[in-house]
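Q: Convert this sequence to structure tokens.
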Amino acid sequence: MSRTRILLSCAIACICAPAFGQLTTSYVPIVFATTSTRVRTAGRPLPLATYWIGSIQAFNATPDPADAGIVNRFPGSCRTPLQPVAPQSAIFDFGDCGFPTGSVGFVEVATSPGVILSAQIGRADALSTICYRVLHPSARQGLAPLPIFASLFPPNAVTIAGSIDLGSPDPCTISVGEAYPRRVNATLFNAGRDPATFAVTVVVPGSQTFLVQEQYVVAAQDVQQFRLPIPPLQSTQLDLDVTAWVSITSTQPFLSYVSSIFDDGEPDAQPFEVFPSRLP
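A:
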């Protein structure tokens, strides 16, 4: 075969073959959790459920075609073929792989260069399947961003999330119906092949003691969410709101983030916040 034909064959192979070597992977949280159920009073009475629903979008910011797909889901292995993403367009349907097997999970997403990932969580109501053959959610009332991680944290790395507003311990400044302290959850992903022990510590800056010192065991390749047992603090004349920082470490490769919720805030209060864990 001539040198020209060899070079031409190589060029065709490079153009036609998927550029797997150029794909980058990211780790993205996925959420689908029921928070409450009730009966709709307006119109025909129907069962109504409230959900926290996560979503992922992949936007191609380049002038060239690109690809995106889920490499794996944790827990419950799941993989999708690479999907084409047209220039200046986005895909947001990753099928069943985009939903956790429980309430929370993580997916590993592969993308071409120039593809921007975005992940959010929102709360929405959904009518019972009495009216619809499938779940029919309402429009989500605002979104909070979920963190996107470029890589795993190594074993025994100490990560920090915060600062987290726990609300006001002063009964004179608390809103009507507001619950204190604010509910705080830690979502822990054990990416290792063996069970992991997570150490979670909550501290208030300037305090001489830790609010929380807990250990949680998470199975291999599993994701679990735990409500942190944060006790109420005594109010002072100087501190209208109490802020805290959360330290998380694990005996296996891991990822984590912290979320907080006002169970009974004011009507216009931001109900949900997310704080990614970061290496110092």
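The CA atoms of residues 179 and 220 lie 35 Å apart.
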